[in-house]
Specification:
The protein is of the alpha+beta class. It folds into two domains: 3-38 and 114-280 and 323-430, Outer membrane efflux proteins (OEP) (Up-down Bundle), CATH 1.20.1600; 65-111 and 282-316, Single Sheet (Outer membrane efflux proteins (OEP)), CATH 2.20.200. 66% of the residues lie in helices and 17% in strands. It has ten helices and six strands, in the order αβαααββααβααββαα. The strands form two sheets. Strands 2-3-5-6 form a four-stranded antiparallel β-sheet, with no helix packed on it. Strands 1-4 form a two-stranded parallel ribbon. Strand 5 and strand 6 form a beta hairpin. Helix 1 (3-22) runs antiparallel to helix 5 (115-181), helix 5 (115-181) runs antiparallel to helix 8 and helix 8 (256-276) runs antiparallel to helix 9. The protein is elongated, with a radius of gyration of 40 Å. GO terms for molecular function: efflux transmembrane transporter activity; porin activity. InterPro entries: OMP_efflux, TolC-like. Residues 1-22 form the signal peptide.
């Protein structure tokens, strides 16, 4: 390797270090934390859970009594004419009448076929459903952030490989020009070297565009300023210890989508219980305290006042409703059957996805190990080819082939690591076990 090329690589490394210091180095843990704090989908799911929590109360279920205060003040001005039993007639204009009533009234359903208790249990299950949906929103968001993050790591590695090959292509143009100047190479060799350099520069610009766009995408997922600049870690580390049986066990017990289906089944059971409660009587008690007063300028009683308690009870029982009760119970049973089917379907879909993703994970691990060896071979081959080309003992086409082999080996290696990491993230996401 020539002195000029070594100097270029040293400058590139120093420039990379300087840029890293100038930019924020964002770790995947920090990215996940920012997403958990800012992401709009998570905030929406958290608010939905708060609504469910506020609704899971005894009062909302109808278990507690209701207590109302009432006030009525009625006034009238009338022209009256009264004919009494003794035959006397009394007439008067603008007679004023007023009545004032106020008090409190209590009503309490003490029995409704246990519907109120089933309703309370349903409200608590709805809260659990909100918790499962929040967990799913968190897992989905964290998974998306991690995938985008490691995609950036992969692209960053490819940028480094393309930058290295650009240095080599520029040196090749310089060597070809020198060889042409001293008459040891044709103009065609110079032109070919320049075309290949232009091609590498085009690839670099496309890769830079993709890298910048993916940064914008990650900033969007983190719900922060889209122009925030940062760097990511230089390497992807893959967990090689995932076991299929353990993953299947965790999916059955921790997967929020499956848990949501099980909660929906429980809600269907409670809804059917509430429907059946209509076959029983509903018993309620009432009580209250009222104060009333009235005044009239004409009549047998000029004024009156009353105050005191009232109490009582009542009961209702549906005797016939056009067979609606039977129909509603049948509908409730069908809904419960559908909930059981949904659980079985979800279990099968998750098991299938876990098994296929795990096989992909094993394949990606194997390919990653293979590409590590291939990249080392391609690097050694390129180093040898560069020296041979420098002293003019190999043709241009052989040099370019070695250069492309090195680029492709780097791309395949970074892609194999990313695909292996992607499989790992999906498996842990299905198992509800992403490191949050």
């Amino acid at each position: 390797m020539g002195i000029k090329m070594r100097l270029r690589i040293l400058i590139f490394i120093m420039g990379s270090v300087f840029c890293a210091e100038a930019q924020e180095v964002l770790t995947v843990q920090e990215a996940v934390k920012i997403a958990l704090d800012n992401n709009y989908q998570i905030k929406t799911a958290q608010n939905e859970l708060k609504i469910d929590e506020l609704g899971a109360t005894l009062g909302q279920a109808g278990i507690l009594p209701t207590l109302d205060a009432n006030l009525s003040d009625n006034n009238s001005v009338q022209n009256l004419s009264q004919l009494r039993n003794d035959g006397t007639l009394q007439e008067r204009d603008n007679v004023k009448n007023s009545s004032l009533n106020y008090g409190v009234a209590l009503e309490w359903t003490v029995f409704d076929g246990l519907r109120m208790f089933a309703n309370f249990e349903q409200l608590k299950e709805t809260k659990k459903l909100g918790e499962a949906e929040l967990k799913q929103a968190i897992l989905t968001t964290v998974g998306e952030v991690m995938i985008t993050y490691y995609d950036l790591v992969q692209q960053q590695q490819q940028l480094a490989a393309l930058d290295s090959t650009l240095i080599i292509s520029e040196q090749r143009v310089e060597l070809a020009q020198n060889r042409f100047t001293i008459g040891k190479a044709s103009k065609l060799e110079v032109l070919n070297a320049q075309v290949d350099l232009n091609t590498d520069q085009t690839l670099m610009q496309r890769q830079q565009e993709l890298y910048k766009n993916t940064k914008i995408q990650l900033n969007e997922q983190l719900a922060r300023d889209l122009k925030t600049d940062f760097k990511v870690i230089p390497e992807i580390f893959v967990d090689h210890e995932l076991a299929l049986e353990e993953l299947e066990t965790r999916v059955a017990s921790e997967n929020p989508q499956l848990q949501a289906e099980k909660i929906n089944k429980r809600i269907s059971e409670l809804e059917l219980k509430q429907i059946k409660a209509a076959r029983y009587p509903s018993v309620f008690v009432t009580s209250g305290y009222n104060i009333g007063s009235s005044k009239s300028e004409l009549g047998f009683a000029i004024s009156s006042e009353s105050k005191g308690f009232n109490y009582g009870f009542g009961a209702t029982l549906n005797l016939f409703d056009g067979f609606n009760q039977n129909r509603n119970e049948k509908i409730g049973k069908v809904a419960l059957e559908n909930a059981e089917i949904a659980i079985a379907q979800q279990e099968q879909a998750l098991n299938s996805l876990v098994n296929t993703t795990y096989q992909t994970y094993l394949t990606n691990i194997s390919l990653m190990e293979l590409e590590v060896r291939n990249e080392a071979i391609a690097k050694e081959n390129l180093d040898i080819t560069v020296e041979k080309y420098r002293i003019g003992i190999i043709p241009t086409i052989e040099f370019r082939a070695a250069q492309l082999n090195y680029i492709n080996a780097n791309v395949r290696l970074s892609n194999a690591k990313f695909q292996a990491k992607l499989s790992e993230i999906v498996l842990k996401q299905l198992a509800g076990d992403l490191e949050i």
